[in-house]
## 1
Amino acid sequence: MGVKVRGSKGMVRYMTFGLLTLLFSVSMTVTAYSGQYEDAVAAYKRGDYENAYRLIKPLAQQGIPNAQFDLGNMYENGQGVPQDYAEAMKWYRKAAEQGNAHAQLNLGAMYSNGQGVPRDFAEAEKWFRKAAGQGNAHAQLNLAFMYANGQGVPQDYAEAAKWYRSAAEQGYVSAQVNLGVMYDQGQGLPRDYAEAAKWYRRAAEQGDAKAQYSLAFMHANGQGVPQDYAEAMKWYRRAAEQGYAKAQYGLAFMYANGKDVPRDYAEAMKWFRRAAEQGLGEARSNLGIMYYEGLGAPQDYVLAHMWYNLAVSALEGEKRENAIKNRDIVAVKMTPAQIAEAQRLAREWKPKDQ
């Protein structure tokens, strides 16, 4: 069992399927009804859904696409009327067929979720594509996700990257992160760490913890950017403070190994513990090392054994085997009573709130 605290390898793959965007329209295409429509919007904004519904429904029945979308929205959310997905679908479809991009997005999302209709990814893709073609960033993100995961369409990373880029260029954080992942992994695009770092940075600057972690990892390892431990520390800390477990682990690793900061085992233990509380097996294993060696806390074989036991339950493959070996090394130095206590602590252990 070595003393050196291990660092994490690899980056998180981040694909998220953003679904329903629920917007009450604020524009009107037919000025003759603008007063009534504005009254409906005002009622909706103040939470007077019954009046909003009363004012919107006649406009929807007269074929106003924004009003049809809004009426579908109210049925979907049970605002002013009982929730009714089938009725929501009906009104979304009417607006979508007239080219309303928000309705096309929500219609696609309802097909994707199986709300009001049987789940149908092919139909979802059709409506997402229509909205995406009008520049709707949320639909572009959803369409990209479907191509990346082969939902309703053959898996096609190049097509996914195309749509992620369209949404990313509009500032959509999830799309920026996913485009960074695709450059990072070389999926649908030539692997390009510099481009990956660029898109991670854009998302990181908007506060996305996953992007902050990925950017920190690239600075720590000199991937696509010059190796810069100070930058790595900055971004690990931002993500760690948002509760992102892998960033907490990365920050702990930096403190444990004195990367751009004086080596500080107590601080390392603090961040390893936070990551361990979230179930990260590598962090649990490192806590086992630190208690075994007395780094950042008094030497404690019982707690070392406990953390190795918890690591074994969270790890797989070679990492799990290493945790078992290390636990057995600790056990040699323990009495049967101490081992029984460590096992009890592991059984009864519960994570603390972050």
## 2
Amino acid sequence: MTERNDTMGVDVHSGRPDEGDADALISRLRVIESQPLADRAAAFSQIYDTLQSVLGGGGGDAPGR
């Protein structure tokens, strides 16, 4: 059985989403893009943080954040 991150649907061992999860992410991004700028910034930041933790980026913020 594959261990997955509930937030993004990513296999925590391989770091790869399955196709359904990729579609879900694309759908989520489209919803975010339709929101006001301040809301988009917060939502994109949330996605960034989630992906960073799932993909093992840990250890601090990216430059400029």
## 3
Amino acid sequence: MGFKSGKIKKLWTVDCGLWTKRGFTLIELMIAVGIIGLLLTMAIPNYYNSIKKGRDAQRKQDIHNIQTILALYYADKGEYPLSGGASSPGGGWSNSSDSSWDTLQTTLAEYGTLPKDPLNETGGWAGNGKCNYSFYSQLGGCSQQWYMLVYKLEAPGNEVSPGVTACNGDYYNYGGTGTMTVGMSG
């Protein structure tokens, strides 16, 4: 039996004088695809969780940097910068997802650059589940002598929001799942 097509000859080999087909059977391919699919279903959630943890590590570093900038400002001026202009959570706040953060950055420019959340979601604030940074320094019995920063962690684990106490003794903690409130009372 002779084959004339070069294409067919590549699919078939001679084994002990008989023509045999080389390659995988449909069952073997289906098993391989199933195993790959199973491995992917286990690996993808871990991959996304590690990305979230990486962004959370960046957030913690950002908040530390913001607090350092605020401490430098306070040491120089004797007060914290005035917050305000945010659309969310309210006009007394500064939020990294709108122009109020740029205004705050202008005030703090000589002390450093204010980072923004890695996702920096608009349309809300960390207190209602959005990933961005919010700063507040008004009221509390001593405007600009205290501040709070509110931010959201995507993979908080067992972390608990410490909250902050204003000069007049009022305690603020916008904690919820992953929402962190930190601050300083001068």
